[in-house]
């Protein structure tokens, strides 16, 4: 019988867990995409916003993507 | 990422209390259907991921994890239902224990809770695909291309990629739609400007020349250039006109002329032909009921898919699987492509009519404004109504549905009421009657109105340019994303395809060593064709047998997992997979798992003891890395074929005076053990194709074989002149013969009086003696130190030794070779 004298809770969160996986295919694809955007000479501020949305915030909603692609505001 | 050392399952599914020790090795759980094997799989999945896919998968809407996860007698105490696993982490060489209860499935408890251990446990939780059941296996192989793409996407965690693709496409489409609406508006404002400026085309030079001509009449300086902020009336005083008029006569006359032109254009031959064609297209749409429904539903689904959000249906409040529902609706829309194409053709024909209606509405409204400023006011009620009708009609035509109503509107759309023309003519008469303005007043009017319309056009143009820039950017980003992700996914699929072909060829190398497969990604689908003996590529279900399809499912899964997890693919559960694979290929599967995935711990379930034996003989699992469940009860859960437990249980039955139950259990246990002994000792048994051997066919063979082996061992010792060993073997043999004599086991084949069927008629004390005798006999087949049965080595070819697992008993069977 396995017993635990002291328990430590770990909040399971599927949105954050994938980040540490051995081969995170979405992250690889997003990185290649951002690299291709640099090559296409698109606005650096927009690429930075997309980088933040896709790789840091991992927010893939249409709203977040729209903010990143169409926003005219420079990053703070 | 991890390996499982042990698991303890308490009050969970059909299990009361069960501990299994895996020691980080591959492990097999065998037992007839309904003995609790899947409970162990569920427990592993639950403790690692917080979910039991069997309970929460498709079509399980009325079953919940919290309510139905605990043992049925503990369904109101989910906190008592818990699973704990001891894990080791090969990359860090750390060990930890994870446990989870059904009261709080979303959270696991860790000891120790080191950050790197937490990280690893989270990684594992993000990979529920470590569990593969036969149900899922077939989903990869026999699914429709759309469904297969979904399954593979989920396994490869590609949903995020598709979500971003859909999002970027939607943004680009939205921008294009917005631009499409802005362009005609800007064009209309440009026409208004041209009319006010009375110039044929809008160029900087022409506008500047026209403005300077007017300015000269007012003595204003010439404008040398025109920029975005230039005002045509710059320097013009606000002094009152010589003959003040609220309506600029020349402008009003120009606007009336323009309105008449638009009206004439509207009812002209060009539009008559277009309207007739559009009506014909729409009639063909409504004539085919299926397409008519398709067009209608397409709009419904298109709107619906945008509104699908939240976790439950807004109508009935029942929870829904968001992604499943979306892909379901998407599939329906795919099927409506024909209707969609016809709809697009009709829309293209209606577009110029809608544009003219919009222009007409604006022109009449401009006239209505002039009429309202006249003194006295010129009534334009019919014109006003017509402008409103233009507005509502163009909206109606843009919607298109229902088709019948659109056709009805279109058939009357070119009938401009005569009263509208009368209103315009009346206004024209009133305007013509106005006194001619002085040249200076006309110039002032010209500059004021042209400047106003120039500003309107500039603002619209700015918006259009900005929208155009956004549209280009959004489309470029979306296209780059599609190209990049397609290339990345193409590379992934190519690698998986290659690996899959190699794995499948491995297990079928006897006749399909040149096997090839094609994974064909296209438009959100994933085709899967396989080579059939060089005759071409076909879907897996076309010609290959079920067993081959099972093998394909496993190989595709393994190839995908190897790609997803790479070196982190250290653990997988294969739940009752490969049941239809034939014996020859099962050996190959064992060899494949062992040689291609040496660092992966597989936990496998099967109801077939022969399959279990294959796993052992092929070295996929160790001699002790398996458990054999013999039965299950709701009160006690699964019962293992565990020596100690069985004898205790028989004892319990006898204490309860239940000889019948004790006899049945002894009989089953002896059958199970005798089969194992025959296998280990390589005993000769009359072959049965159905593998349903009876005790009378197995135990005497095992007995006879062990006695033969002892004789062979004595002969071998004699050849080596090992007197001590001969004596030891003699003692062993003699002791075994005594045990045999007490049990009467040898007599079974000839003496039906002692056949196990008559045990039921024995009294408690008499049967106790039988139990004791057989227990002694079975002990004679093994080592008292390690408590394992002897095994002949090697398991094929000439026997060389008789050994136990600990090596204390190691009896040589080979004679000394004599020189010729």
> Averaged pLDDT of chain A, please?
73
DSSP summary: helix tally of chain A: 4
**SS strand fraction of chain A:** 5-15%
* Separation of the first and last Cα atoms of chain A: 55 Å
What's the N-to-C terminus distance of chain B?
59 Å
> Helix/strand/pairing class of chain B, anyone?
alpha+beta
Count of DSSP-assigned helices of chain B: 26
The average pLDDT of chain B is 83
What is the gyration radius of chain A calculated from CA atoms?
18 Å
- Beta content of chain B comes to 5-15%
Q: What is the molecular shape of chain B?
A: elongated
Q: For the largest sheet of chain B, list the strands in their spatial order.
A: 7-11-12-3-13-14
The share of residues in helices of chain A is: 40-55%
Instruction: Detail the poorly predicted runs of chain B.
Output: 749-754
Q: Return the structural class of chain A.
A: mainly alpha
What's a concise summary of this model?
Chain A is mainly α. Helix content of chain A is 54%, strand content 5%.
Structural account:
The complex is a heterodimer of chains A (76) and B (820). Chain A has helices at 14-17, 25-39, 44-56, 62-70; one strand at residues 8-11. With 76 residues, chain A is mainly alpha-helical. In chain A, helix 2 runs antiparallel to helix 3 and helix 3 packs antiparallel against helix 4. Chain B is α+β, with helices and mostly antiparallel strands. Chain B is built from 26 helices and 17 strands. In chain B, helix 17 crosses helix 19 and helix 25 runs antiparallel to helix 26 (764-779). The two termini of chain B are 59 Å apart. Residues 749-754 of chain B have low confidence and may be disordered. The chains are: A mainly alpha (76), B alpha+beta (820). Chains A and B meet through strand 1, helix 1, helix 2, helix 3 and helix 4 of A and strand 1, strand 4, strand 6, helix 4 and helix 7 of B. Strand 1 (8-11) of chain A pairs antiparallel with strand 6 of chain B, so a sheet runs across the interface.
